[in-house]
Amino acid sequence: MSILTFLLFLIVAAVCAGIAEYVVPGRVPGGFLTLAIIGIIGAWIGGSLFGTIGPALFGVTLIPTILGAAILVFVLSLVSGSFAR
Questions:
Q1: Do the domain assignments include residue 25?
Q2: pTM for the model
Q3: pLDDT at 84
Q4: By three-state DSSP, how is residue 39 classified?
Q5: pLDDT tier, 82 (very low <50, low <70, confident <90, very high otherwise)
Q6: Largest CA distance in the chain
Q7: Which of 74, 80, 85 minimizes the C-alpha distance to 26?
Q8: Could you give the C-alpha distances from 18 to 11, 27, 43, 56, 59, in angstroms and in order?
Q9: Which of 77, 82, 52 is nearest to 64 (CA)?
Q10: CB-CB contact of 79 with 57 (8 Å)
């Protein structure tokens, strides 16, 4: 894997996490780096739960990544909400 492929992978994962953050009623603090990390973890969760359905872009299957990142954002918002009280 070249550095360009890795950077494009991070960008696609961050965009998928941004879409998931927009869809799920929860906010994730941080910027691009946080979204990229959530996108990578979301790709792993989505790939484990849903397989490789849908289109792929630079090694990121888009639909499972968005769904996995949405699950992760939802769980993170629940956990951070419970700690805030």
A1: yes
A2: 0.86
A3: 54
A4: helix
A5: low
A6: 45
A7: 74
A8: 10, 10, 13, 17, 18
A9: 52
A10: no
Bridge pairing between strands 60-61 and 56-57: antiparallel
Q: Is residue 85 part of a domain?
A: no
Q: How many domains does the chain have?
A: 1
Residue 38: give the domain boundaries.
3-80
Query: Where does the pLDDT of residue 78 fall: very low under 50, low under 70, confident under 90, or very high at 90 and above?
Result: confident
* pLDDT per residue as tens digits for the range 10-69: 999 999 999 998 898 777 777 888 889 999 999 999 999 998 898 988 888 999 999 999
Query: Which of 77, 58, 76 shows the shortest CA–CA distance to 14?
Result: 58
Tell which phi-psi region holds residue 57, choosing left (phi > 0), alpha (psi between -120 and 50) or beta.
beta
CA–CA separation, 74 vs 54, rounded Å? 22
